[in-house]
Structure prediction request, 393 residues.
Amino acid sequence: MKIIDFFRDIFQPGKTYKLNQRLTDSVKLQLDIEDFAIQMAINMLVGLIAKCEFKTYIKGKEVRTDEYYLWNVEPNVNQNSSQFIQQLVSKLLHDNEALVIEVNGQLLVADSFVATGYALLPSTFSDVMVTTFGNNFTFDRTFSMGDVVYFRLNDRNIRAMLASVMDGYSQLLSMAMGKYKRAGGRKGIAHVDKTLSGDQKFKQQIDDIFGKGFKEYFDSENAVIHLPNGINYEEITGEGSKKSTSEVNDIANITKEAFARVAQAFRISPALLQGDIADISTLIDELLTVCIDPLVDIIQTEINRKRYGKEAYLAGTYLRIDTTCIKHIDIFSIADQADKLIADSLYNVDELRQKIGDTPLNTWWSKGYGRTANYNWLADKPPDDSKTGGDSG
Prediction:
């Protein structure tokens, strides 16, 4: 739910409402913490998936055709593939759903739409709006489910569930910040000798001094305040007026806990979201397994279902998102493993060069699969048992 919809449901049009300042500050604080943590999580996942290569296959053979160019280079005239994928994944993670339409051979991510669901018939999408460089364009046609690529992340919007959890942390953080302000605030006692009753001029003078004069005095780095006769001010000093590290630690710990809940909601390691770099390789492997791969599977499955279909998919014509591009590869650290992969005939030289970001050699030997002497049983025909000691009985 968007924030504008949230307030529209609460407040009735045509009526005037007075908002409590502390309440609005608390709501703003909650939205700030929640939005900041969520945007950090989304930006991390979006950046990683944008690095992936969308590989296309025809009858089991990897090819680079128009479909490959569409997903990896230029989906439409106004976006490159990185911008397009970032917008798509952001919408999916933020709104729990995303809609991609194809118009004149171009792929566009919808900013808003109205979905109408049916049990046994294809659902439809109307009022589809696309925003380009701040300009909104709404299509005057209704798209059928078969004409679009529609992604849905979860049955329940994780952000709606997260909002109630974040509310508790926001209240705790608000209390901690209030404690921090009070710990460093200046306090004093004012003695007023004259009675206020009946003297409106003196009463107004008192209100101006305590309402405006002392505020400016306390807010200024260097200041002098004039006190009329009958008013004496005594500053209270002591340890109670000094800030301590405990208040700062309270704020840091509560914020850290709030970020941890957001990370868990998006299946990200809290340490990774908070920027801890210790054991980064293990954290990335965990992120790939529990977060990136399931998310990528949702995307590629829907693409294959809509843009390829059952017959083509079963014949080996499909799209696959390669997530191996996410991890940085140090060629010197993988030299032994690369040699083993070639010796096992799992990859050829060109395939490994592509994995590490180098250009394929495109030679006959770099495209071939090596066989070492230890693996010479890998032949075009199965071995003859009578010649290899097989049981002849």
About this structure: The radius of gyration is 32 Å. Residues 331-393 form one domain.
